[in-house]
Design brief:
alpha/beta; 7-stranded parallel sheet; 7 strands; 18% strand; binds magnesium ion; binds zinc ion
Length: 223
């Protein structure tokens, strides 16, 4: 085993400990870690989701970006409590960063928390942040080869949202084939097809979110 591998394992083990501490602080609110490539529409989907659910639930967002507060400003404009994390160059969020963000939220007053990860399909899948669920977001404009190229994030996710469905006619994205490939990687995964821009499919996604809030309130563990 070379030194680099040992280092990576140490980092992941330390991360797991902090993720457990985060999870203990999040026993009363459902938490979703959103992972996608840059530009897949995470922030736009969150805006639509908040507009749909804000009269039912108190929603918080931890907004991860390498630089800038633009996404956090968009989210705050929709009425969610938001904390920005700037990773300053790092390509994923880790449990420590999320723990510091949680310090800035009134967790007792939230029902649902989203963690919008840094746009990247690779290492965010390896870092447990203490969330209940990972959701992978994939847009039809990025091409259908992402699940087979980056299987870990699809394997680790409970749900996948295939976004930008309104642009489907302008792409060669094969919806049936991609869904079949995702199910080969993860047979248990729930798939939603949305257009965060037009709102198509957002209601079905919000039904799942209502379900996980209800489950969390009843004290059931995620699974
Ligand atoms: Mg964003
Ligand atoms: Zn990374």
């Amino acid at each position: 085993m070379n030194v680099k591998v040992v280092m990576a394992q140490k980092i992941l083990r330390a991360n797991e400990q902090v993720a457990r501490e985060n999870r203990e602080r999040l026993t009363r609110l459902a938490t979703v870690n959103l992972i996608s490539s840059p530009g897949a529409g995470k922030t736009t989907l969150l805006e639509k989701t908040i507009i749909t659910l804000r009269d039912e639930f108190r929603i918080g967002v931890v907004e991860g970006d390498i630089y800038t507060t633009r996404d956090a400003e968009r989210i705050a404009g929709r009425g969610a409590a938001v904390v920005q994390i700037n990773t300053g160059g790092l390509c994923h969020l880790d449990a420590n960063m999320v723990g510091r963000a949680l310090d800035q939220l009134d967790l007792d007053r939230l029902d649902l928390l989203f963690i919008e990860n840094v746009g990247n399909l690779v290492c965010p899948a390896e870092f447990d942040l203490g969330e209940d669920y990972k959701t992978a977001l994939l847009s039809v404009t990025e091409g259908g080869d992402k699940p087979t190229k980056y299987p870990l994030v699809f394997k680790e996710s409970h749900t996948v949202v295939i976004n930008k469905s309104d642009l489907l006619p302008y792409t060669d994205f094969d919806m049936n084939k991609v869904q079949a490939e995702i199910r080969t990687i993860n047979p248990e995964i729930q798939i939603f097809v949305t257009s965060a821009t037009t709102g198509e499919g957002v209601e079905a996604w919000c039904l799942w979110l209502r379900e996980i809030v209800r489950r969390k309130r009843e004290g059931h563990a995620a699974g």
